[in-house]
TrEMBL record:
UniProt keyword annotation of Kinase present: no
UniProt entry tagged with the keyword DNA damage: no
Signal sequence region: 1-31
This protein's name: MBL fold metallo-hydrolase
Keywords: Signal
Species, as recorded: Bosea massiliensis
One Pfam family here: Lactamase_B_3
């Protein structure tokens, strides 16, 4: 009995030491939420996404590659080799330095305080001077990128007019729109400014951005042939949105966060394509 007591004490002491060690470890979510400039959205984000290196073939002259980096950040690559990062921020970034970085104002996970100095064009979706809407129309090799301003809710509940942008990427015959941190339905003026959209990248969280029913109506108005969800904070939110969507469009789930699209290879009818991420 005495030997058993000594063994139990040894095990107990080991467990207590392990528990003390765990308690002393920094909490990722707490450490992240203490970063200057962070917003409540960060509490749901967790750790930055780190993608495994993928060996990718060179693009053909009509191909565009889209990689879901995480949250609201995509890496878009053109046939001429131009690289674009959407909603570029200080937490979730592609593994390469983009040539063009677009940013939005709603949360610190959508803009950067310290953009990589190697980026050739940094395009904020709002006017930092506060004089009105941002206006971008930039051409680089085979890429044209422009913006359509939208409003956002401020933390006081008021409207920050022209506080964010939908960014439109025209590459060859393809038109890709990233809806950013969209907070409201699209009006006829927005749709006219956007024009035809072949691929749309859109948020589905339903709380920080537009509610899910409203986002469904946005997608119906755009009629893009490829729809890729983002900004969903975990599987349950995404599953809820897909359940709302399944009667409207076919849904395809991919195993890799990368998709290559061409104008000729677009689906015959609008299709939702889900890439792994958060």
């Amino acid at each position: 009995m005495r030997g058993w007591t000594r063994s139990w004490r040894t095990v107990r002491n080991g467990l207590l030491a392990l528990a003390a060690t765990v308690l002393l470890l920094p909490s990722p979510s707490r450490a992240q939420s203490d970063e200057p400039g962070c917003r409540p959205e960060m509490a749901s984000l967790g750790l930055p996404v780190h993608r495994a290196n993928l060996t990718l073939a060179a693009l053909g002259k009509d191909e565009v590659r889209i990689t879901f980096v995480g949250h609201a950040t995509f890496l878009i690559e053109t046939p001429a080799g131009v690289k674009i990062a959407t909603d570029y921020n200080d937490y979730v970034r592609p593994q390469v330095t983009p040539d063009v970085a677009t940013m939005n104002k709603a949360h610190s996970t959508h803009y950067s305080r310290n953009p990589d100095p190697g980026i050739k064009q940094v395009l904020p979706g709002w006017d930092p001077t506060g004089r009105g809407a941002a206006k971008h129309d930039v051409t680089m090799a085979d890429l044209r990128v422009r913006n359509v301003p939208t409003n956002i809710r401020s933390y006081s509940g008021s409207t920050d007019f022209d506080g964010n942008s939908i960014f439109v990427f025209e590459i060859g015959e393809l038109c890709i729109a990233h809806l950013g941190h969209l907070h409201h339905p699209l009006e006829p003026g927005h749709l006219r400014a956007l024009g035809r959209v072949d691929v749309v990248l859109f948020p589905v969280d339903g709380s920080y951005t537009l509610d899910q029913e409203g986002m469904l109506e946005v997608l119906k108005s755009l009629q893009a042939r490829v729809m890729i969800p983002m900004h969903f904070f975990g599987g349950s939110t995404l599953s809820g949105f897909l359940a709302r969507s399944q009667d409207n469009w076919p849904i395809e789930r991919r195993d890799q966060p990368v998709i290559t699209v061409t104008k000729a290879g677009l689906p015959a009818r609008p299709t939702m394509i889900v890439l792994p991420g958060n």
